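Summarise what follows for lecture notes:
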Amino acid sequence: MHRRTSTIALSLVLAGIPAATTAAPTTGDSDDRATPASMAAERDEELRSAIRDAAATARATQARRSASGELPGPARVPRSPQPTLEAGVEQLVADGAIGVTARVETPTLRWAGSAGTRSLDGDAPALERSPLRVASNTKTMIATLVMQEVEAGTWTLDTPADDVIPGLFPDHPEVTIRHLLSHTSGMPRGTNELILPYVEDPEDWDDFVTAISRDYADAEHVDAVNAVPWASEPGEAYSYSNTGYVALGMLLEEATGTDVGTLVTERIRRPAGMGQSRYPEEPGLQGAALHEAMFVDERGWIDLDTFDPDVFSHSGAAVATVEDLSDLTTSLLGGDLVSPATVEQMLAPSSANPMNYGLGMYALPDPCRPGEFLYGHDGASFGSLSLTFASRDGSRQLALGVTGRDLTVGQDALYDINDALIPMLLATC
């Protein structure tokens, strides 16, 4: 088990633990209570740090193998990496994850694996093609739709949001589409600000589950960030924001007259061949899907089947398989969804930030090719996490999905995703 044995009471957790960050401040809460939403924000930053650490560890391992002659000639993976890959996903479940699904593909390897169960209390096995809530991987879909509109001449990256929906951000009319795509608008993350007014008892986890089971309108997301101070002025600093992408979805619907779910289906899912992806608006996951649950000390596991995707809306509502995520990433990088020139715009870091975040995607140092990068995104809901990355030419790719998240702050999580991620990264070499 990776998790330490210390215990933190919920009443202390909600008393005001700040959200950790590796960039500019990401919250602007008018209330200083920490909530499960801000706790999840802290875990999200830990996830992104872990992903970067995995890439660094994989790179060091690959360099050592090459230097020792363990890998003669061009860098290669061991002849039979499957046992190591399978052991990685099984380790996550052994340490506390509920369900895991993973995929690696290279010119010489095609591997998919799964471990665990589909739900907290069930015994149906997780499958290699089990869908799950992919959360912020939705942002890549939204960014692609926005860039399609840029290519069509509907707007430019420097078009103010106010030109599309007047008064959207009344105190910040200079916010542009580029600011929203690149998380440089200065607005807070937004999820905590949205949920907090509906969490009446900060010591009652059931109250929190009720709040995230509520049906939220997109305008409520925007109202929530407009009601609090922003971290910085637009364009000054990187500040990750879910509400920024909710706003982009609103702009898309205003400009096209079509709901975002339909746009995703017609212009992303079908062209990319994402056969099992959905863009739900209501709670509940069907069929072979992996169900969400969160873990907190003093309470244990909490089922999240009533979670309403409107809590994240256009910043994180999508459901997909890991194969779908790989198809999204490689189709985008290959120029199937936007032009190659637009792809380059999306990949270029748009500000000084540790994620090398561009426009709906970010760059991870390639552990197999010094000086090159893998491109993709991660996603973390309250009860699931996912990631997808691929080489620039799309020939090497990986995707991982896990359900069951430990939101207890101040101690190690139940499992370490790098038990699976590091072998996966090495398998792409």
Summary: Residues 33-427 form a domain with the Beta-lactamase fold (CATH 3.40.710.10).
